[in-house]
Design a protein that fits this description.
The protein contains 3 helices and 3 strands. The protein has about 90 residues and is of the alpha/beta class. The protein has one domain (about 10-80).
Amino acid sequence: MGEFAGKIVVVTGGSKGIGESIVRRFWKAGARCVIVSRHPDEYQVLADELKAAGMTVNVLACDVRKVVQIKNLVADTVKQSCRRRFVPGFIKS
């Protein structure tokens, strides 16, 4: 397995560009990824593609300029990781 096997990586701006490349790189290294973006339509397309390729991925709408949304992002990620599995495609606004 990769050096990030069993790890959870949260990638903000992960739906396109550099963020998308980071998600793909961590996945190849064995990580489970949470794709965070303000634009659900953009991250859902990527998440569907990656799930079809066998990646375990979660997506979350979050504006990292808003403290409340960051707190929810962390709480939801911890809650999901404590279940010892990720539910593909959980989405919160």
